[in-house]
Amino acid sequence: MSTGSARAVALALIANGGIAISKFGVFLLTGSSSLLTEAIHSSADCANQVLLFIGMRQGQRPPSSRHPLGHGQAAFVASFLVALLLFSVGGLYSLVEGLHKIRHPEQPHHLGWAVALLILAIGLEGWSLRGALRAAEPERRGRSLFRYLQRSSSTELVVVLAEDIAALLGLVFALVAVLLTMITGNPVWDGIGSVAIGLLLIAVAAFVGVEVTSLLMNEAPTLGLRAAIRAAVDEDPAVEQVLNLVAVIIGSDRLMVALQVKFLEQPSGAALVEAINRLERELRGRFPQIRHLFVEPDEI
Asked: Membrane topology for this entry (predicted)?
């Protein structure tokens, strides 16, 4: 696992652990529905970060006879499970709890404590999000955050970023709901805040689930990267034409590449083998994310 990804997950776990404990404590004091749903959300996020750590560690296991391409997709599986947890534990619970409080409103109390906690939690989540953004900077290369979340194979960072963004927005929703409850004296706003948080979490979980599912179904890397690999093959003096290129993401920043290449006529079979080996060394040097490379000499 990359140091940046591991650090981002660790920061998220520390932040969410502290926030979850604080939210449960203030919920017991105030009885606020928005705080309860936020506490459940933060607890689910803690479980999610543990799952990500497990997936990242399993993804580092070397290839075996049963898994010849390695275990890189273990991180994808963990990220998909995180999306399911975010949807079921976080989103659905918040939605159900909010609807219940709208139908059967209960007046929360000591809401000043809730406001103070939510402001503190916004600061902690901002700290976690800042760390995740820094870890993603080398891979983003100037791309918009949304585009990065769509195209990155570093699913652990994608999940942490998505969770942190959802958590920040959820805290803002909860803060607005608590403030409106204080100002109007109407506890229905507290339930509306929970519903808003639930819908937000479901939307984020659906986004993460769709993106990770695409990776689990052998998604190809970006068109730009495939074009760069093809151009590098074309530059080889022994290559006449690239007949076919297949590239598949097999883990976080890991590729399997298969090439069908027409080589210029070689004086012997040994010379052809050396040309293939030289091409493989060149590609591995220029594209370290290529973990498995297969070059097949062929004719049109």
From this structure: Multi-pass membrane protein
